[in-house]
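== Protein entry: sequence and backbone fold ==
=== Local backbone shapes as whole numbers ===
==== Amino acids and backbone structure tokens ====
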Amino acid sequence: MTEMVYGAVPAQGGEPILPKWWRTIDKWTVSCVLILFAIGLLLGFAASPPLAERNGHDPFHYVERQALFGGLALIAMIVTSMMSPTLVRRLAVLGFLVAFVGLALLPFFGTDFGKGAMRWYSLGFASIQPSEFLKPGFVVVAAWMIAASQQINGPPGTAWSFALCISIVLMLALQPDFGQAALVLFGWGVMYFVAGAPILLLVAMAGMVVVAGSIAYANSEHFARRIDGFLNPEIDPTTQLGYATNAIREGGLLGVGVGEGEVKWSLPDAHTDFIIAVAAEEYGLILVMIIIGLYASVVVRSLLRLMRERDPFVRLAGAGLACMFGVQAMINMGVAVRLLPAKGMTLPFVSYGGSSLIAGGIAVGMLLAFTRTRPQGEIGDILRGRVR
């Protein structure tokens, strides 16, 4: 009767995308990433002027470029985080195929910029490192394959993903880039573990990694030099590790003061691989602990949210992205304090870099998309239902 008098009730439109995104996103993770980026810019003001002076640029040339690339990374992160898991998977497959082809063609068209490793494509005004964009794409593709293998009469996705992983690791090792190769293998291992891999098989895989490392040590001068330098009890004070170790020691608890550090004048990679040494020297242990806490917060919060997820693909892909993000940060800081051999790996969102910043923004955007709150029953509801 009411409709006859007043007309039909208009259909309610869906919730606008921005309010829905803000309501469902993990705001703590977004805040941690923004703080990490701000810390990166702060450290860039301290670390990059000496390098800019040596290269004939304006004092804050690299800071301006980091702000530009970082802005693009944050835009990529926000846009990607607004996507559904299905759309993320589709775009990740396309991105992975492009990055995989780019990685395969590096020996023919790439450059090493005099660093002895063929990892980049030079565009003149910038460079692209395909492996940075390959990592998040590979995690999503591998998670899709492994999740498909768990379905009834599903394909042998786990075997396919492992074959794909090994092919990528071999291409990275030939560059050589053993750090990224280890990171890709670790990401696949995490997803395989979450999917329910037998412990004995994981132990066997760890043994295979040791054997592969021994072979690489015997046949790669680059790899052997890094390992010998790490195992040597004496640190040459004129090497990058020597400068970084001394800077961390000099920084102490509170640091030597803003702008008073000396390591940035000695290290050619103070704004990238060894940015944590600049932080430790000028701001002390307190800032380093804050940085570690921010990375740990992103990883732990993401894993806790993923524990409530019902979709196995989302759980696997999210766990792989979160753990790879945290381990990359751990490797970078571990090298600086000589807990790990030198790897040449950036500190996500803090180190200077174009490819690493933008690829990191895409990876965290994927992680945020997978950890968004969605209308679904929690995984615990299913488990309790099975018990009953």
In short: Residues 1-13 have pLDDT under 50 and may be disordered.
